[in-house]
Inverse folding.
């Protein structure tokens, strides 16, 4: 059976604004681990635009076939096949200059978010950068009514998921020696957070 290559419209919509930030943030980096590569579209697009960078993909095993379909069509040599990565389990044995994740922290349960941050020291080089894209709350408040509706939709699917409080994310990062360096407003009521040490 031939699988249909997965396509995320959200990935198409947000790749240009995200790239505008990554181009600056990753200019002096050599390697990045993407946690939750999803369809693989971001990996192929960003690696193609940033040839100086080696892009490591990762996700749960069930998403690997779709990621590999995108990688099969990529002509460069600066993307690795996906690692099996469940943040609550074992992490890949590699060290990178940056970790990038998009639209993941509100999908996973908060216990998994804690595991996400606890696992970062396993893969981050010294002076590495953590980049997180997605919606967040500030002082317990949603930034827009649409994000509040999105939060309800998420919790109907999984009560443990939901739009995260940025203060909680900062605290988890602080426990791993990371501090918020930038909070960039992005289209569609999202943020791009940049952490460093």
């Amino acid at each position: 059976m031939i699988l249909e290559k997965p396509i995320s419209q959200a990935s198409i919509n947000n790749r240009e604004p995200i790239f505008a930030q990554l181009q600056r943030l990753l200019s002096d980096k050599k390697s990045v681990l993407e946690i939750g590569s999803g369809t693989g579209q971001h990996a192929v697009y960003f690696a193609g635009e940033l040839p100086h960078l080696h892009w490591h993909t990762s996700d749960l095993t069930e998403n690997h076939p779709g990621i590999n379909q995108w990688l099969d069509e990529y002509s460069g040599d600066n993307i690795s096949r996906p690692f099996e990565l469940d943040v609550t389990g074992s992490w890949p044995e590699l060290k990178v200059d940056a970790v990038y994740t998009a639209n993941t922290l509100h999908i996973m349960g908060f216990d998994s978010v804690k595991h996400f941050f606890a696992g970062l020291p396993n893969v981050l080089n010294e002076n590495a950068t953590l980049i997180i894209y997605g919606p967040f709350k500030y002082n317990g408040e949603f930034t827009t009514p649409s994000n509040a509706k999105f939060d309800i939709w998420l919790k109907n699917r999984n009560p443990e998921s939901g739009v995260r409080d940025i203060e909680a994310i900062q605290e988890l990062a602080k426990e791993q020696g990371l501090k918020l360096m930038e909070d960039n407003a992005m289209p569609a009521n999202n943020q791009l957070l940049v952490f460093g040490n």
Remarks:
- Residues 133 and 192 are 4 Å apart (CA to CA).
